[in-house]
Design a protein that fits this description.
Blueprint (H helix, E strand, L loop, with lengths): L7 H15 L6 H15 L2 H11 L16 E9 L5 E9 L6 E7 L7 H12 L3 E6 L11 H9 L3 H17 L3 E10 L1 H10 L6 E7 L15 E7 L3 H4 L2 H10 L4 E6 L17 H19 L2
Helix pairs in contact: 1-2, 2-3, 6-7
Length: about 300
């Protein structure tokens, strides 16, 4: 829960600072010092700045909703072929029991890489009956580091064309493995939401359903390439992402794409991430997740 002693306007300004820092495309030590300097001025002291940051940033200790050892699921680290001879490492989860064909869902991480929170999302999908796979798109640079600033820096250095190609290759791999019904969906958050949008423009009919949480959008002219049904979740206070969303939604509709879009009033970017106390919004997270599961059931079965 947010610190009740922090004035809401101060918290919101701090969130805006953090959002600008974490989405600037780089996270060097110099950038972090500058961010902390601004946050300290805003908060009034270094100690107060640390309290604000603790509520805004992700707390890995709060990541688990479905325990990794939950006996209802089988979860493990795996590898699979990506594009152009590359290999991706990642995490998979499915319901426990005999291996049977299930719809598959790719889970695309935020700009922190494959974190415990994203692994937890993957397990939640397994409990809903899916074969869920979360790629580590930082495999090419040695995998997701523990330090989130280093992870964001590594994300900023990715070749996004190659990364999207690896995502498309993963969709096709999921459609053809023995455990899959051939019906594949994808869900992504923040940077991952943007990547899901990109992957949807290039996966053809192999991708049946795509869900993007507060994901920056591609050039609207690329909407003609989308064959998947699309579900888009936006945060009402997320001006950085929302500015371009209407044009993307309109382009999808013009291209006759099956698209649903929802904006959740009064909530921040990353409202679904329950490891960030000050940005998480339970009501919006629960509603959007219920819509996501209903969407996958309608489009993929299971």
């Amino acid at each position: 829960m947010p610190d009740p002693e922090t004035p809401p306007d101060l918290r919101q300004r701090a969130i805006a600072l953090y959002d600008a820092f974490t989405h600037a495309g780089h996270s060097s030590e110099r950038d972090r010092r500058a961010f902390m300097g601004e946050l300290t001025l805003l908060a009034g002291s270094a100690a107060a700045a640390q309290v604000l940051l603790a509520g805004i940033g992700a707390n890995p200790a709060a990541a688990t909703v479905v325990n990794p050892g939950d006996t209802r699921i089988k979860a493990q680290s795996i590898s699979w072929p990506a594009a152009n001879g590359r290999t991706l490492n990642g995490y998979s989860a499915r319901p426990v029991g005999p291996v049977v064909k299930r719809p598959a869902v790719m889970v695309v991480h935020e700009n922190r890489g494959l974190t415990e929170h994203i692994r937890d999302i993957t397990r939640r999908l397994a409990l809903a009956g899916y074969l869920a796979v979360a790629p580590d798109f930082l495999t090419v640079s040695g995998g997701t580091p523990v330090d989130e600033d280093k992870a964001r820096d590594a994300i900023g250095k990715l070749d996004l064309r190659a990364t999207a190609a690896d995502g498309v290759a993963t969709v096709h791999w999921l459609a053809h493995i023995a455990q899959s019904t051939g019906k594949v969906g994808a869900v992504g958050f923040c940077w991952g939401g943007a990547l899901v949008n990109q992957i949807a423009t290039a996966s053809g009919e192999t991708l049946r359903a795509a869900v993007a949480y507060y994901g920056p959008t591609p050039d609207p002219t690329r909407a003609v390439g989308v064959r998947a049904a699309m579900l888009l979740h936006y945060a009402g206070l997320d001006d950085r992402v929302n500015t371009r969303a209407p044009a993307w939604i309109a382009a999808l509709k013009a291209a006759k794409v099956d698209v649903e879009a929802y904006t959740y009033p009064g909530v921040n970017h990353a409202f679904n991430n329950d490891t960030s106390a000050d940005r998480y919004n339970k009501a919006a997270a629960d509603l959007s997740w219920a819509r996501t599961l209903a969407f996958f059931k309608a489009k993929l079965g299971g």
